[in-house]
Amino acid sequence: MRVERPVRRRPRGVRSRRTPRIPRAALVALGWLPGLAAVTALALCANGVEDAATTAAKPPAARPAVAHTAARPPIVPRSAWLDRDTWREQPPPRYDDKVVAVFIHHTDSPNAYDCAESPRIIRYLYSGQTGSRDWDDIGYNFLVDRCGTIYEGRAGGTDRPVTGAHTQGFNHRTAGIAALGTFTAGVEVPKAMTDSIAALAAWKLGLSGVDPRAEVRLVSSHSGSRYARGTTATLHALAGHQEGYMTTCPGAALMAELPEIRDLAARLQGRR
């Protein structure tokens, strides 16, 4: 007499923990492997199927925040304007940890120049600052001419946070951009110049993730500035020289352009 074995039934709501099914194509491929290799591959394949099922059940990961950076604009190197006869021996450049603000200047020099003369003008500025003023180098990190050409100023590397000598009290963690010319009230500021200033500021501030329209907190390092030494000042991330020092620089006409320059720089960083 044959005894029927009882059939075990799972309680309702309890799922079976069956071994994941291996695709038929994978089993055929495994048949070509030697014994141990086939066993190992079979285990890996089974785990892979199970992991894939588990992964598919997970919610999608959060997207990383968008980095607001801008492309580096073309920059003419120092070698284009500094010749061997003008060069003066100087100490190694100094650096900060990053650049969180830029100060806009004008050079208080004539406006009616041919852009081919820009290297000569910058060389003249360098000679004055390192000669009669006895500075170690030209103070500005960058200079922009009326045609929108950007020149490397102070030595140390355009992509590095070089400590300048452009805004007394606020040379640390900032960059100085000088517009070649004099931009007092009523003077037209060339669009090519303001566009290049915006592109340069967008790139330089983007390296630190700073919005050109924002305000930043900077600590004054010199009581000769608008703020006593040690004072924390709240300034525009893209500021005029006069915001940090008692001066009319960069001139009323260029100061009036700064809001539009900030907006363009922000758009170049991909901000709304």
Structure description:
The model is unreliable at 1-20 and 22-57 (pLDDT under 50). A hairpin with a 5-residue loop joins strand 2 and strand 3. The chain contains 5 helices and 7 strands, in the order H-H-E-H-E-E-E-H-E-E-E-H. The protein is of the alpha/beta class. The longest helix has 23 residues, at 35-57. The chain is globular. A 5-stranded mixed β-sheet has the order 3-2-4-1-7, with helices on one face. The chain has a two-stranded antiparallel ribbon with strand order 5-6.
Brief account:
The protein has 272 residues and is α/β, with parallel strands linked by helices.
Helix % is 25-40%
**Continuous helix count:** 5
| Number of E strands | 7
Report the span from N to C terminus. 85 Å
Radius of gyration: 32 Å
Note the quaternary state here. Answer: single chain
State the strand order across the main sheet: 3-2-4-1-7
